[in-house]
Specification:
13% strand, Phosphorylase Kinase, domain 1, 10 strands, five-stranded antiparallel beta sheet, 363 residues
């Protein structure tokens, strides 16, 4: 078994996956007793200047963005041999939800898109464009809130700094805007195009443009009209047409323009809670997750798990002892007063009878 990297303050428990330049691990934040996703730059990319700059830039970008629909970063830094970034952990992605359900309820899909759009417009207002909006990069907190993450290739709107080779576009072709695919300068409306592709996929169960070759998909995005949604979803077609317009000037560029398009369609929808993690066997309670993943001998397990188990075990015992004590006290009283009990009962009966007679006499 390969040993996990050692990150100060975090106990790495499970490998979750790999990106272009980093491995991602499920970890326990030992200081705050919470789960975290820790991105660790792979050793083979550690010596690449562009990769290091992009990794640092993502941490700086996330540190400057504070929005309920944008991932929260907990810490970032480096050890002697590694660079790392710790952030919120999420149990479910939009990609997983689409794969599970095939199609998302239209009201739910629009609610997700609306909250993601709010996060994107906020980032645009702060001067950042995401450039890689796709279902993989939209996750759900346990309460159902959608969250945008992976700002690894985000760019400052007015920046001329290049972290890519000349002429190379960044992003995922299946979700990229025509201007990105043509290696032209992207702006906030490029993110809205990508969100339009995501909304189309949520509604219909598949992206609008598909093909066995990447170049086929690229050409469809650049040249072909948007495939119509199924007839029962026709009400959403005008919104998709505006979001995925080839000419970026037709796409909503501000939150006000977005709301004007969405308002006629929007119905408040309570988003479902995120599913359990696919590695399974974990209660939906965060404290139980921490306890199970941190291990029996860890500080978190000692601090949170054992005392709770002991309290649960003590409660039935306390109730039993209290009931036993009451029964014994009653038995002792009866033993010493059994001769008086008939007289006491008779006196009580006479008192009650007199009360009843007095009450009836007043009627």
């Amino acid at each position: 078994m390969t040993a996990f990297p050692e990150i100060p303050g975090y106990a790495l428990k499970k490998f979750l996956g790999s990106g272009a330049a980093a491995d991602v691990f499920l970890a326990v934040d030992l200081k705050h007793s919470r789960l975290a996703a820790v991105k660790v730059m792979t050793r083979r990319r550690f010596s690449e200047t562009v990769a290091v700059k992009r990794f640092i830039k993502e941490a700086q970008t996330l540190s400057s963005l504070h929005h309920p629909n944008i991932v929260r970063i907990y810490a970032a830094g480096r050890t002697d041999a590694l660079r790392f970034m710790a952030m919120e952990y999420f149990p479910e992605s939009l990609k997983q939800r689409i794969q599970t359900r095939k199609r998302i309820n239209p009201d739910e899909a629009l609610t997700i898109a609306n909250q993601v759009a709010a996060a994107l417009f906020y980032a645009h207002g702060k001067g950042f464009i995401h450039r890689d909006v796709k279902p993989d990069n939209i996750m759900f907190r346990r309460d159902g809130t959608p969250v945008v993450l992976d700002f690894g290739i985000a760019r400052v709107l007015e920046s001329t700094t290049q972290l890519t080779r000349s002429g190379m576009s960044m992003g995922t072709p299946r979700y990229m805007s025509p201007e990105q695919l043509n290696a032209k300068r992207a702006d906030g409306r490029s993110d809205i195009y990508s969100l339009g592709v995501v909304l189309y996929e949520m509604l219909s169960g598949a992206p609008p443009f598909r093909g066995s070759q990447t170049m086929t998909v690229i050409m469809k995005h650049v040249t072909e009209p948007i495939p119509p949604l199924p007839g029962e979803l026709a009400a959403y077609q005008p919104l998709i047409d505006r979001m995925m317009a080839k000419e970026r000037s037709r796409r909503p560029g501000t939150e006000k323009e977005w709301q004007e398009l969405v308002k006629p369609l929007f119905k408040p929808f309570k988003l479902p809670k995120a599913d359990k993690p696919e590695f399974g066997g974990i209660s939906t309670a965060a404290d139980r997750e921490k306890t199970r993943l941190s291990g029996a001998g860890s500080p978190i397990a000692r601090a949170t798990s054992k005392p709770r188990v002991r309290r649960r075990a003590r409660r039935p015992l306390r109730r039993f002892l209290l009931n036993l004590l009451l029964v014994l006290a009653l038995a002792v009283w009866i033993f010493f007063n059994y001769e008086r009990i008939p007289g006491m009962l008779a006196a009580s009966a006479r008192t009650i009878a007199s009360w009843i007679s007095a009450w009836l006499g007043k009627i």
